[in-house]
Amino acid sequence: MSNYSVVIEGRVDDKVVRVPWCVTPGSKIDKKYIGTSPKIKNVLKSYWKLVENNITFIRIHGAPVDQITNDIDLTNKTCLITGANNGIGLEMTKCLNSNGCNVLMASRNSYAANNIIKYVVEKNDLLRFYDINLASLKSVKNCCNAILKNEQKIDMVILNAGVFGLPWTLTEDGLETTFQVNYLSQIYLLMNIEKLLTPDARVIFVSSESHRNVNWTLHNTLAPTEDLVSLPKNKYTSIKAYNISKLCGILAMHYLGYRWLNTGKAVFCAHPGTFVKTSLCRNWWIYETLYTLMKPFAKSISQAASTPIYCAISPDLKGLSALYYKDCQRCEESDLAKDLHLSFRMHDLTQDILRERVKFIDDSVNMVLKSSGLQDQPKEIINDNLVSNYTGQIQ
Ligand SMILES: NC(=O)c1ccc[n+]([C@@H]2O[C@H](COP(=O)([O-])OP(=O)(O)OC[C@H]3O[C@@H](n4cnc5c(N)ncnc54)[C@H](OP(=O)(O)O)[C@@H]3O)[C@@H](O)[C@H]2O)c1
């Protein structure tokens, strides 16, 4: 597992060197620095080595997104991106578009999306806008209906839209807004369009390292309740709500990883970077200021788009699924996030919350249950069976 988040790339004698910071460039990675907090002395030593070695090119934080798509043919591929009109979502949209990929922009801002289609991208015939407000399940459903009506297939889905730093508010569905926008509505979207996914489709949750800060007590019988994920006002802080929503995304990845086992479909979580200056913090001036101050030291938006795009298209990930990535590298998620029992309990809760609000039956889950003869069993037996099947197959 690599724990570093800053990468220095350089060219020594025509050879690209890519190392985590505080490791001597051009030499083997010194393992004693990996997973430790970098010491300023070591960082300076690394930079000095770069200068000494006649490095012609230094890039901190890894490749910009266009280098990830280099040499990958995306013609005739279709990618659905939520929150595609802004920040990291827009960067991914532009990059995929310039590589010949059809992009379905699922956004709530039709004015911005239409301007992007008209003026920003190179191949505007490859972009299609779908109106979606993730704070409304009805809007999500309408968006899905439009996608199902107009599209033949989807090869990649990037669940990117997100909010942070909101004061406590409830959506029209009676749920805490951060939870619904960042997690629930995007799962609902995915469930509704699942039938359009190609046999080798990839789904990417744009995640965050902040999922590590959720401190629910972990034990196998933990059954999350609605109050735990859709925080009531007296338990709410916007940071807590954001962290929980990102944890839920990773748990959903594990559930889907099971559900799509041996199908060819894959699902990944990608942390784009930390302190990336986008509009994410627009709702909270303290964080807006912090992100502005950190901008010189953080990834550019293009670099932040690299990991989700890497997960969506890279041939390196063929045959893999249900993994968490950062800096285009496999990274361990938190213990809570990789708890399979919890991921199934969270799926149950998600279904319950949705069922209560929309007349919704997840046909595909019922199909899985039917084929395994479990449909008439109590929920606990179903879950235990599904989990033990899963662990049995990945060992
Ligand atoms: N920036 C970072 O440092 C960072 C770090 C870790 C993870 N992330 C994750 O990266 C993803 C992209 O964030 P970003 O930094 O690019 O932020 P951003 O620029 O604010 O983009 C967020 C996108 O989500 C859309 N969105 C928000 N609420 C919506 C709603 N109710 N319905 C439909 N769309 C909605 C926004 O649309 P509007 O433009 O219409 O508001 C925007 O397109 C998020 O999931 C975020 O959690 C970011």
UniProtKB/TrEMBL annotation:
SUPFAM superfamilies documented for this protein: NAD(P)-binding Rossmann-fold domains (SSF51735)
Keyword Membrane on entry: no
PANTHER family the record matches: PHOSPHATIDYLINOSITOL-GLYCAN BIOSYNTHESIS CLASS F PROTEIN, PHOSPHATIDYLINOSITOL-GLYCAN BIOSYNTHESIS CLASS F PROTEIN-RELATED
Single annotated GO MF: oxidoreductase activity
Entry protein name: WW domain-containing oxidoreductase-like
Signal sequence region: none
Keywords: Oxidoreductase
Coiled coil: none
